[in-house]
């Protein structure tokens, strides 16, 4: 049975963890509204961090909704994700997007993370 919980072990909590992801990302994945930074994790599982700023989304309710959607999509895709630290940021306001459209964009990013990491692993094993 797959474990879909979201404990502290699956989160980036400390500023140093966020800094390492932002300063030396393994790769970045862009979307129209979101961007994800990926970094090789020292852990055995993927971890999630979010930097959803007040500058882009002034209302706390909207920021929390976006975070909730990102967490939920991450939680469902976690079993397929490689051991990476992921940080999601917002490129522009999501005011025009519905929750389903946000879910779809986040799913696309997570699918790209999975495929990109598989390609990286394949090239490492060939060398």
What do you see in this structure?
The protein is α+β, with helices and mostly antiparallel strands and 127 residues long. Helix content is 43%, strand content 18%. It has a 4-stranded mixed beta sheet with strand order 1-2-4-3, with helices on both faces. β1 and β2 form a beta hairpin. α2 (60-77) crosses α3.
Question: How do the helices and strands line up, and which of them pair or pack?
Answer:
Layout: H1 15-23, E1 27-30, E2 34-40, E3 47-51, H2 60-77, E4 84-90, H3 99-126
Parallel strand pairs: 3-4
Antiparallel strand pairs: 1-2, 2-4
Helix pairs in contact: 2-3
How big is the Rg?
14 Å
- What is the N-to-C order of secondary-structure elements (H for helix, E for strand)? HEEEHEH
* Strand order in the sheet with the most strands: 1-2-4-3
Our measurement of the CA-to-CA distance between the termini, rounded to an integer number of angstroms, reads: 36 Å
Largest sheet: 4 strands, mixed
Main features:
127 residues; alpha+beta; 4 strands; 3 helices; globular; 4-stranded mixed β-sheet
Short account of what is shown:
The chain has helices spanning 15-23, 60-77, 99-126; strands spanning 27-30, 34-40, 47-51, 84-90. The chain has 127 residues and is an alpha+beta fold. β1 (27-30) and β2 (34-40) form a beta hairpin.
């Amino acid at each position: 049975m797959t474990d879909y919980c979201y404990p502290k072990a699956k989160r980036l909590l400390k500023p140093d963890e966020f800094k390492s992801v932002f300063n030396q990302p393994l790769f970045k994945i862009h979307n129209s509204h979101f961007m994800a930074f990926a970094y090789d994790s020292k852990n055995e599982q993927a971890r999630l961090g979010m930097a959803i700023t007040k500058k882009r989304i002034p209302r706390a309710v909207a920021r929390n909704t976006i975070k909730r959607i990102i967490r939920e999509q991450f939680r469902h895709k976690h079993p397929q994700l490689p051991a990476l630290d992921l940080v999601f940021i917002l490129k522009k306001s999501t005011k025009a997007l519905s929750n389903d459209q946000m879910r779809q964009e986040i799913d696309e990013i997570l699918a790209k993370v999975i495929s990109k990491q598989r390609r990286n692993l394949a090239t490492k094993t060939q060398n």
